[in-house]
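# nightly structure sweep
# worker-07 picked up a monomer target from the shared queue
# config: single-sequence mode, recycle default, output format = structure tokens
# input follows
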Amino acid sequence: MRRTGGGRRRGGGWRRWVATALVSGGWLLGAPSPAWSLQGGPAARPAADVVLVMVAHPDDWQLFLGDVVVEALARGERVVAVVASAGGDDRPEAFWRAREAGALASTEAALALARVPTSPGAVTCRPVSFAGPRPGTGSTPVLCERPGGRMATVFLRLPDGRGDGSGFAGTGRQSLLRLEQGKIPRIDPVDGGGGYRSTGAVAEAVAIRS
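# output follows
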């Protein structure tokens, strides 16, 4: 699994690093590094089994990492996009579900741009249970992909934390930043699919999911 800057991280250091990325709203894993410039072409970078792209909202990787995703797919790598937030602010469920639908449509576009042959069948989504090692970390993120598995999207559906991390009233001012700061005891997905008592628990779910 490749991350920004190359190399790998394992164990507790890996989970802490992912947690930091989530809290900062970053889209860190899978981004190019100075040592592995995209201008150098496929031969300039060794292939990884999985490129993990982390974003705050369903339309972020398309805006900021679209070239990274398409080039990774073209090199024959598997791409997993982890979307932390439902991105709905205080809007109704129909809003964030529409954003998810748009995100999935864009994965089809990325596969086409990368000239990846796709298997017959539509994109399917399923909840994936995660029983964390600590009490209260059970959750059910949603994993979406088409047959063949070249690109998958994991929706954590956490509440949108607002630009400053203060959260929205409609979701009880929940945000990853406030969870990290100890201002809230847990953060719960907007679809009611379980919750997390720490950003480390979120990171563990991301690591196992991908």
